[in-house]
Specification:
Its EC number is 3.5.2.6. It is found in: Membrane. Pfam families: PBP_dimer (PF03717), Transpeptidase (PF00905). Belongs to the transpeptidase family. Belongs to the class-D beta-lactamase family. Strands 1, 2, 3, 4, 5 and 6 form a 6-stranded mixed sheet that branches. Strands 8, 9, 10, 11, 16 and 23 form a 6-stranded mixed sheet that branches. This protein has a 5-stranded antiparallel sheet with strand order 18-17-26-25-24, with helices on both faces. The radius of gyration is 48 Å and the shape is elongated. With 688 residues, it is of the alpha+beta class. A hairpin with a 4-residue loop joins strand 24 and strand 25. Helices cover 30% and strands 24% of the residues. Helix 11 packs antiparallel against helix 20, helix 13 crosses helix 16 and helix 14 packs across helix 19. It has 3 domains: 130 residues, Nuclear Transport Factor 2, Chain: A (Roll); 144 residues, Penicillin-binding protein 2a (Domain 2); 296 residues, 3-Layer(aba) Sandwich (Beta-lactamase), CATH 3.40.710.
């Protein structure tokens, strides 16, 4: 047994390894653990793979489900908003509609609202969505909803026609997997409640009566007056020769007649070319002779006119058809064709005078017959405008200016105790411009009333001696007195009273270093010059006195020249303030409900005014206004001459106070205030 191999096992228990072929002399194999067998997949990787597979399968399933699922129903509110926008634009066919007839919705819209759009303007109406009911979904993918629309038509400045209409909305369901669109059931009731097919709206405006312009005592100054619009009708035989005959009958010059003929020739074949508007029974024109001409027509009408053709024309203004500019600026208040105030008081108070038109909207049946009322606004007639003009005083002023047909001119008269403007006349040479209240010119020596007030405030008295020399030089500029200035009123020590009475330029300018430009400005303001009136009631300017000026300009300001400007209204206010003893704020127009103008303001004292009246009295007694000595109740006056251009021409003025009347005469060009304006003032104050 000892020789059996099993009896010689190594101590580790393993059987001995037999020698390799060739013996142990070869390199033995590396000794180590046996190669590992392949491991099975890990659990995490297997789970990842399984998860990916599941996700892919789920995605494919969801995608298929989404492709097969019906799209959601669109929001009906969006469809309602789109329909509202289309209705407001007048193009309802721009959105899906369910039509019950073949009639075009857009054409129906145009026919229904033709009259409304003509009355209130294109694109004037607005349509908004008021509400949309919650949609009701059907089992077959359809849905329904109801939309309510709010319509607004601005038919008047402060009124609108507002109503609501209802549209039935239907969702037909998706098509080929795509979401469908909501449709509105179309009918004319969607435009106006209860409107039946074929019916349409009719709109009629009722024009209000224009308010009159009256005096504060109630006398009519401007009222509705019968007239005829005279013109040439090209549809009538004889129109081609009518212009020349009409020119002869109405007394036109050849240039005017030729212009009329050219207008008629260029007008359309059926045109009516208006030539002139003639008052009924106007003695200036032969209306009957005009009507006897072949081709001439007179269309009757009524217009707001003054009782006399030229009475206060520039001040009262005119009425005519609204211009495109007026229509645009009115922001819907004025429509094309409306009669409005175009100038003067008629324009300044147009809203009050014009009133509010009435408007009736009716639904007219397709077959004719009586319509039914849809909306109505009652007209509101214009209110009268009360003004302070005194007809007799105004006519007297116009008569005094009647011969000044080549020069701008004006007379303004104020009642000092109340500030009422009794007359504001612009002469024929003003060519329709309101020189009386708007024409600004250097006031010349009439401004010396303001300069005198500043001097009085500096300590000068009527008896203070001042130098009145032939000339005075201020920084190289020479000033002198007006031609013909009396030598008896000149000297090195002349009482201020005499300097004022004779209007010595050099005497006033001699004080230019003692009186500042600011003091001049303040004194003028105390008299109402350069101060905005508290409640004048019409377009007006009251001049301007600068607060700063160079030495030479300041010297010129002392005698009402340089940069000093005034209107006739402003200088009449100066005279009124002196007369009243306090600063007067002039007024012309009275707003409805007012009984009197605002209380005057300013710092003119009664003592200052009394001294100025005394100085102005000297002008009448011994100075440049002695021609007024026979005027009843005359208190005082002041003349003014303001050179312009090269100095060879002058604006001329005269102020006067007589009883409770303060007046000014202005003429654009003349010799002297005393010789040119003075006679006109005398005629105005005396009526002869």
């Amino acid at each position: 047994m000892s020789g059996h191999p099993s009896s010689h096992l190594p101590a580790d228990g393993h059987a001995p390894v037999p020698p390799p072929p060739g013996g142990y002399d070869t390199v033995p194999p590396a000794v180590g653990p046996p190669p590992a067998a392949p491991a099975p997949p890990r659990k995490g990787l297997r789970a990842l793979i399984i998860g990916i597979v599941v996700v892919v399968l789920l995605a494919l399933g969801v995608g298929a489900w989404l492709l097969l699922r019906e799209p959601p129903v669109p929001d009906p509110e969006t469809a309602a908003e789109e329909l509202a926008a289309a209705l407001e634009a007048g193009t309802p066919a721009d959105v899906p509609l369910a039509l019950e007839t073949s009639a075009s919705p857009d054409e129906q819209y145009d026919r229904v609202f033709e009259g409304m759009l003509a009355a209130v303007g294109e694109d004037a109406g607005t349509v908004t969505v008021k509400s949309v009911t919650p949609m009701q979904e059907g089992d077959d993918g359809t849905a329904t909803a109801t939309a309510t629309f709010a319509w607004t038509w601005p038919v008047a400045a402060e009124a609108a026609w507002e109503y609501e209409t209802v549209a039935e909305l239907t969702y037909p369901g998706p098509t080929d997997g795509e979401a469908g669109a909501w449709e509105a059931t179309w009918n004319t009731g969607l435009l106006v409640p209860g409107l039946e097919p074929g019916e349409q709206l009719a709109v009629e405006r009722t024009e209000p009566a224009r308010g009159e312009i009256v005096t504060t005592s109630g006398e009519t100054l401007v009222g509705m007056t019968p007239v005829h619009h005279v013109g040439i009708d090209k549809t009538r035989p004889g129109w081609d020769t009518a212009a020349a005959k009409l020119g002869d009958a109405l007394g036109f010059d050849q240039a005017t007649t030729d212009d009329i003929a050219a207008q008629v020739e260029s007008a359309g074949a059926k045109a009516f070319v208006e030539v002139i508007t003639i008052r009924e029974n106007d003695p200036e024109y032969d209306f009957d002779a005009a009507m006897a001409i072949d081709g001439v027509v007179g269309i009757p009408d009524e217009l707001p006119l003054a009782k006399e053709r030229d009475f206060a024309r520039a001040l009262l203004g005119s009425v005519g058809e609204a211009t495109a500019e007026v229509v645009e600026e009115s922001e819907g208040t004025v429509k094309p064709g409306d009669m409005v105030g175009l100038s003067g008081l008629q324009a300044a108070h147009d809203e009050q005078l014009r009133g509010v038109p009435g408007l009736a909207v009716t639904i007219e049946p397709a077959e004719g017959g009586a319509g039914r009322e849809a909306f109505t606004i009652e007209k509101k007639d214009g209110e009268p405008l009360a003004i302070t003009l005194d007809p007799a005083t105004q006519l007297r002023a116009e008569s005094a200016l009647a011969d000044l047909d080549n020069l701008a001119s004006a007379i303004v008269a104020i009642k000092p105790s109340t500030g009422e403007v009794l007359a504001a006349a612009s002469g024929p040479g003003s060519d329709g411009y309101n020189t009386a209240t708007l024409g600004q010119y250097p006031p010349g020596s009439t401004f010396k009333i303001a300069t005198s007030l500043a001097m009085l405030r500096s300590g000068i008295t009527p008896e203070t001696a001042l130098p009145c020399t032939a000339t005075i030089n201020v920084e190289g500029r020479e000033f002198q007195n007006v031609p013909g200035y009396p030598e008896s009123a000149m000297g090195d020590a002349v009482p201020f009273r005499t300097v004022f009475a004779n209007s010595c330029n050099t005497g006033f300018i001699s004080q230019h270093e003692k009186i500042s430009q600011q003091q001049l400005h303040d004194a003028a303001a105390s008299l109402g010059l350069g101060v905005e009136p508290a409640a004048f009631g019409a377009a007006a300017a009251l001049g301007d006195v600068p607060t700063e000026a160079s030495a030479t300009e300041h010297a010129a300001s002392m005698i009402g020249q340089g940069q000093v400007l005034a209107t006739p209204l402003a200088m009449a206010t100066v005279a009124a303030s002196v007369s009243a003893g306090h600063t007067v704020s002039p007024w012309l127009a009275q707003a409805p409900g007012e009984t009197e103008a605002e209380a005057p303001s300013g710092d003119l004292t009664a003592d200052e005014a009394a001294t100025l009246r005394d100085l102005m009295g000297g002008v009448v007694q011994e100075g440049s206004a002695t021609l007024l000595q026979d005027v009843p109740g005359i208190v005082g006056a002041k003349t003014g001459t303001a050179q312009f251009g090269d100095g060879s021409k002058a604006h001329v003025w005269m102020l006067a106070i007589a009883d409770d009347l303060a007046a000014v005469v202005f003429i654009e060009e003349g010799e002297l205030g005393s010789t040119t304006a003075g006679p006109v003032m005398h005629e105005f104050l005396t009526g002869s």
